[in-house]
């Protein structure tokens, strides 16, 4: 079978995945959800049966910020800092019998956490939904049936580099101070993504080297033809 036939066969064999994860909202309130383990446990045997291997082929950070919000209860105001990471994942499904044959799907996910689990949550969501959507897995649930909680966030406090993940900060030059926002605007305008000062310099240097490489290649080609 080709890769399309294999994915179709796996989709036909898969049934509704049970919600085995209990999410505790408060001390007395909880709800059931489908975990990544539920999805993998359902998919893994069928991928082995039909000869398909799936994995995240590429990931990139689209946005990474530290957000601050406030909530008021009984007249008391409470501040909360939350870390948010938004990623893009390209998930690949490979035909084991013909490894050059594969299908890719792109998923986007956000992870929000008050500590250090934001990026991990984003990766888990991206992988889980890549499998769910590729194999058309039904969970008997619909995210539209539950309203999203309204939270008013302030302007992001920090910005992260799309290449290395480092915080993007302002810096001083001989002409004055460049803020993080000004640097980001310059980076996005030139390269289409947010880069820290170090990665920006490397990208500029690589951009300047390209014409020399092209000229060298052209000279080599002309010499070959002359020979």
Explain what this protein looks like in three dimensions.
The chain has 227 residues and is an alpha+beta fold. It has helices at 3-13, 36-50, 118-134, 180-191, 197-226, and strands spanning 21-24, 30-33, 52-73, 76-95, 102-113, 159-160, 167-168, 171-173, 176-178. A 3-stranded antiparallel beta sheet has the order 3-4-5. Strand 4 and strand 5 (102-113) form a beta hairpin. Helix 2 crosses helix 3 (118-134). The model has no long low-confidence stretch (mean pLDDT 80).
For this entry, give a set of tags.
227 residues, alpha+beta, Enolase-like, domain 1, 2 domains, 3-stranded antiparallel β-sheet, two-stranded antiparallel sheet, 5 helices, 37% helix
Strand order of the largest sheet: 3-4-5
Highest-level CATH class of the largest domain: Alpha Beta
Q: Pick out the low-confidence regions.
A: none
Query: Strand content of the residues, in percent?
Result: 25-35%
Number of domains: 2
The proportion of residues forming helix, as a percent range, comes to 25-40%
CATH architecture of the largest domain: 2-Layer Sandwich
Mean pLDDT: 80
Apparent shape? flat
Number of strands: 9
Number of helices: 5
Class by alpha and beta content: alpha+beta
The largest β sheet comes out as: 3 strands, antiparallel
Termini Cα gap: 49 Å
Order of helices and strands: HEEHEEEHEEEEHH
Provide the CATH topology of the largest domain.
Enolase-like, domain 1
Please tell me how large the radius of gyration is: 24 Å
């Amino acid at each position: 079978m080709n890769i399309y036939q294999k994915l179709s066969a796996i989709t036909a064999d898969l049934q509704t995945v049970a919600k085995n994860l209990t999410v505790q909202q408060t001390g007395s309130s909880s709800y059931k959800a489908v975990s990544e383990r539920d999805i993998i446990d359902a998919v893994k045997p069928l991928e082995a049966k039909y000869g398909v291997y799936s994995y995240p082929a590429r990931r990139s950070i689209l946005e990474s910020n530290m957000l601050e919000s406030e909530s008021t209860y009984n007249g008391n105001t409470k501040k909360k800092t939350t870390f948010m990471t938004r990623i893009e994942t390209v998930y690949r499904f490979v035909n084991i019998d013909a490894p050059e044959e594969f299908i890719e799907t792109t998923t986007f996910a956000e992870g929000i956490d008050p500590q250090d689990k934001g990026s991990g949550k984003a990766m888990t969501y991206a992988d889980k939904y890549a499998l769910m959507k590729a194999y058309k897995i039904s969970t008997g649930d619909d995210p539209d049936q539950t309203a999203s909680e309204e939270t008013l966030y302030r302007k992001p406090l920090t910005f992260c580099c799309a290449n290395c993940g480092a915080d993007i900060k302002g810096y001083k030059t001989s002409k004055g101070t460049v803020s993080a926002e000004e640097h980001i605007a310059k980076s996005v305008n030139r390269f289409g993504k947010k880069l820290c000062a170090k990665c920006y310099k490397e990208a500029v240097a690589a951009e300047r080297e390209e014409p020399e490489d092209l000229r060298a290649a052209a000279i080599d080609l002309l010499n070959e033809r002359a020979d």
